[in-house]
Amino acid sequence: MLDMDFVHLATFLRWIESKALDLGDRMQKGYKRIWSSGDLGLYLLWLIMHLIVSIWYFAVDLVNSLESYLISSGFMKQYKDLDISKVRYLAVVLDSEEALDTMKVLELLRWLTVMGLRNVCLYDPEGVLKRSKDALSLWLRSEGANGDALVKQKYLNLEVISFTDGKHAVAKAANFLLKKHYVNADAEVPELTESDMADALAEIGYAAPEPDLMLIYGPVRCHLGFPAWRLRYTEIVHMGPLKSMKYGALIKAIRRYTMVRQNYGT
Amino acid sequence: MEKQSSSVVVRLLGSLVGYMRRFLFRFLSVGPIPRHMAFILDGNRRYARKWKMDDRMGYKVGFLALMRLMRCCHELGVKYITVYVFSIENFKRRPEEVQTVMELMLEKIEGLIKEEGILNQYGVRVEFAGNLKLLSEPVRIAAEKAMRVTAHNKSLVLVVAVAYTSTDEMAQAAQECCRDKADRGSQQQQLVELADVERHMYMAVAPDPEILLRTSGEKRLSNFLLWQTSNSVLYSPAALWPEVGLRHLVWAVLNFQRVQPYLHKRRNHLYLSTQQ
């Protein structure tokens, strides 16, 4: 018990130290900027503006937390019926540093399984999740085996990808097309179309479904390099940092998606 | 007498607003300003329906909003603006609608490239990104003329994405890479590298955008800049495109400034990983 407390204390002190160093760095940069622009007044105005924005987001977070609590406690009746069949393929984009917290990722996958989702694609730019994929699959399967008969049937098809499955895959597909159509210089070269590209990607092992919905767990609403070929009409929702993820927020995001009607350009 | 005094008041008011805007941009500039902003101009037809106008009027009001935003971006110090005007998917709309948009585009391009037009006044260079072969002859010729006539301008680059989709862009880039390598024609196998693909993209005329703003509250990219937005903040205000204004721009830039250190770090990581 004492050991755990000590570990917690040490972690907390380290966190404080890193925040203090960050603040010190920022202040140093700020001073440099003031001396170079020579206008303390402008800098203060800018800081105040950002402070107001931060207060706004703090208030928004509070309201969202309350709403998530109400949703997951079942107080909001409209969230009880969820047509999960509309989400055929879900993508989850994680910031690589946050993805290191494998237990949180597992908890998220558990929530998705409970909600009835069967096909999930996990993405992080640096491939952290690829390293923990085996552990995740093992845990999920063991939970399925230990649970009752109903839970046993709920297996998740998990796809784990990283940045190299995006842009680099397109370059590889281009090489494939080069060998296929251009190596024999005498043969007539056809106009390459999008379907040729899609076929090439499939041939080299990068054929995968396009997600209907993408949830981003990270500090920024940014897809961090998810394979471009699969993002055409994906609905993108930012969920905030992984460490503060909430079940209610997840339900809300998925329900919102099921109410959206797409035009597809026409 | 009355008309004169009221026009003086209007002018004073205009100058005051302009002064306040410039002051706002001055202290926004204390933080990092995005070099490239991209916009999806969504909601012109919905705006027209909302105000009981026909679609053509909706597009015209949308064009005015674009000019307004372009002026603000220029004052703020943004160097590149990309606008998604017409997707390859939009060719599937009713022929009258496609015709309306094409006619309007032709009219606006010709108006803009005049000597006294806004492009030369602000020093804006125009680039057209997309599969221009899919456009009708008059529009394509006007687009090529616009690029030629404004090539010497240096203040701001306006990239107009017309007959564009990201997947088409990637396929075309792959095709150009293959042609390039095949033309080099040597015995040894030339490999297509990632840098080759990036060089042949339609959007190679501009760096990756820092912010992508899509109006009408839609939360998808609809086949726009899927390749280039690996490190971009995606922002979806609920306003329709013709309603977009200074406040949306300021809010987008403030949000960008909050997360810029994180994105900068990510960009460096990406750069290092592509070098390997």
From TrEMBL, chain B:
GO terms for biological process: polyprenol biosynthetic process. Pfam families: Prenyltransf. Its EC number is 2.5.1.-. One of its GO terms (molecular function) is ditrans,polycis-polyprenyl diphosphate synthase [(2E,6E)-farnesyl diphosphate specific] activity. Keywords: Transferase. PROSITE patterns: UPP_SYNTHASE. GO terms for cellular component: endoplasmic reticulum. Belongs to the UPP synthase family. This is Alkyl transferase. It comes from Salvia splendens.
